[in-house]
Amino acid sequence: MYRTTIGKLRLTGLLEGLSFLFLLFLSMPLKYIWDIPEFVTYNGMIHGFLFVIYMFVVFYVTYEIRWSKKWMLGAMIAAVIPFGNFVLDKKLKGTFHEEENQMAG
Fold first, then answer.
1. What's the confidence (pLDDT) of residue 99?
2. Residue 79 within any structural domain of the chain
3. pLDDT digits (tens, 9 = 90+) for 42-83
4. Is residue 34 part of a domain?
């Protein structure tokens, strides 16, 4: 699954999306409710790194498979909306499932 171009995007999107949710729903409450800022510091760095990697992969996919600007913009927007990467993943899985099966077989 993760050997194809779309598979790599799905994997990085999953990791980036999970780090974003962790930052929003665990690290931020720990900082602002219980005054424990360390989680934001470390998770923020991890999330920032994964976000940059995700954007590189989006540009790579756009170039490699001649993705439309609509798909590219959607992938970029999905990264800044909570749960956005998971919605995008479902669309990618449905739209590009045939490509993945051809590459695997």
1. 55
2. yes
3. 999 999 999 999 999 999 999 999 989 999 999 999 999 999
4. yes
Among 88, 75, 73, 79, residue whose Cα is nearest residue 21: 79
For the full predicted model, state whether its pTM sits above 0.85.
yes
What sign has the CA pseudo-torsion 58, 104, 97, 2? negative
Q: Examine residue 103 and state whether it is found in any structural domain, yes or no.
A: no
Q: pLDDT tens, 10-25?
A: 999 999 999 999 999 9
Residue 17 · residue 92 · CB < 8 Å = no
Instruction: Say how many domains are in the chain.
Output: 1
Q: Distance between CA 45 and CA 50 in Å, rounded?
A: 9
- Alpha carbons within 13 angstroms on the beta-carbon side of residue 36 total 9
Query: Which residues have a Cβ under 8 Å from the Cβ of 90 and sit 6 or more positions away?
Result: none
> Within a domain: residue 105?
no
